[in-house]
Amino acid sequence: MTEIPSTMTASVLRGVKDLVLEERPVPVPAADEVLVEVASVGVCGSDVHYYEHGRIGPYVVDTPLILGHEVSGRIVAVGADVDPERIGRRVAIEPQRPCRRCDFCRAGDYNLCPQMEFYATPPIDGAFCDYVIIQDDFAYDVPDSISDHAAALMEPLSVGIAAAQKGGIKVGDTVLIAGGGPIGIIAAQVAKAFGAVDVVVADISPARRELAASYGARVVDPAAQSTVDLAANVFIDASGATPAIVNGIRSTRAGGTVVLVGSADEFPLSVPDVAMRELNVTGIFRYTGTWPIARALLESGQVVLDSLVTHVYGIEQVEEALSGEGSVDSLKRIVLPRVRRVDEPEVRAAS
User: Fold this and answer.
1) pTM of the model
2) Which of 64, 232, 238, 245 is positioned for an S-S bond with 176, CB 3.0–4.6 A?
3) Contact between residue 265 and residue 192 where contact means Cβ atoms under 8 Å apart
4) How far apart are CA 133 and CA 37, in angstroms?
5) Can you list the positions of beta strands (E) in 43-106?
6) First vs last Cα of the chain: how many Å apart?
7) In the chain, how many H helices and how many E strands?
8) What CA–CA distance (Å, rounded) separates 346 from 282?
9) Which pLDDT band, with edges at 50, 70 and 90, does 52 fall under?
């Protein structure tokens, strides 16, 4: 059995662009929780936003915070009510804790739980550290065919799955996706897995378009080619860019669905355009029940995640990982909390 230390190393955000390494106590699992030794943690745009701005909307970093919520690892200890046979199993973590008692939770919409505790959302610590705790049923077993990196990236894959579910993507659909970054690429793969026959990714970056094409999407340069005649059944915005959202709405056929995944605060919405064409405009907020679907998509090979990883860093390089996320040559950046430094973080050119 693995000997568990009393303290661990954590990368802690104390304020805007103020990261330090600290020794923290190793958390002790409650009766319904497991203790996970962290293997891989993906860097998300929200981590970058907290690092650069210290807040996202109403969530403010006003006390020290550990970032990171895309997590995989290995169970090393369990609470009193958890089967000890789980110790040693590799897992992917759904990084949230709903109350399980409110109307939303009882209806199955636990992502909307007003009491939600979500990794790396103030004041809840995340996973840029050696160990984390999570309720037993939110630590999903993964087979050896799924790597630690891919298991961590089941979190952004869950975003893509939730977008496809909310859009109601079905066999034969045409799907337009704005943005060829990680979420756009993942959403394109999920759309194909859900049966879409024409998946179009629009991005102004030639490098991102080339990458999206390598994953089987049809690509367009929205600055040079109109998509209005595409008449998509479903439009998914993964760009957060106002012009892309406006164009995507115009490119959605009557009765179609617009799913907002990107982070634009506001955009002009033509109410007559929506009302007279009976468009369904919706958003997604995280996900519910997506990890088993994500695992099945990875095991079947319908979705590939390992090739999205472009950079890998150690715990001493979290600031470097956060500073480089979002650049054109970067798709997914991974932090290995139990490694101090990686000499050559770039593992593949995203081109």
Assistant:
1) 0.95
2) 232
3) no
4) 9
5) 55-56, 59-60, 65-66, 70-78, 90-93, 96-97
6) 44
7) 10, 20
8) 37
9) very high
